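From the pipeline queue, job 12 of 40. The input is one protein chain; the requested action is below.

Action: predict structure.
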Amino acid sequence: MDSMSKKILGVITARGGSKGIPGKNIKMLAGIPLIAYTINVAKESKLITHLIVSTDDEEIKDVSKKCGADVPFLRPEELAKDTAKHLPVMQHAVAFMEDKLGIVFDYAVSLQPTSPLRTVEDLDGTIQKLIDSGADSAVSIVEVTGRHPVQIKRLEGDKVLPYSVFEEEGIRRQDLPVAYERSGAVYTMRRDLLMKDNKFYGDDVVGYIVPQDRSVDIDVPFDWLKAEYMLEDLKKKGYEF
């Protein structure tokens, strides 16, 4: 079965009640609700066959529907708390849609509105990498440019120790191996990993590299300012959002 015949559910997860930036998911970024960036690019995907927004918030539901997204339910209360994890949120969405449509999906994709600068190439590239690799899941990753993981330390009493990897004395930052972190833009996984194995990532995870100039994960007000600057810069380079 090729990628075009697989059933893939895209789920935009948008809980209400953000504390860092009130109303974040529908706050206007360059005149457009934040969630609209994710809805628009997901609708362009050539691989996602079904797209929904999972939210607990009526206002987010209304804005999402105006942007052309399907919002088939309001999330149960237990999945709307600060402590709600991605795994049960995705399991609920998959179970609901499979029951509604009478089908079984092959893959699921989790998309967060807080990463508005992803492109359809980033999205479909990550999904295709999962399909081609046969891995449990695939995530978008970006090169770490700030503090390298080798340079991160922990304290044991007053003693400074490596947090994870020993740092060779005198080694230059540019001589350290390239390190990556999840960009937050795309998470995709086998349906059975979610529904049968009860896992979000699994043991076999592959990464799809995205560039730094499109990687932002909005959590605090400074991230919002960064996203505005990055968006303006990308538009100058010819990107359309």
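Job complete. Helices lie at 34-44, 58-66, 86-101, 120-133, 191-195, 221-236.
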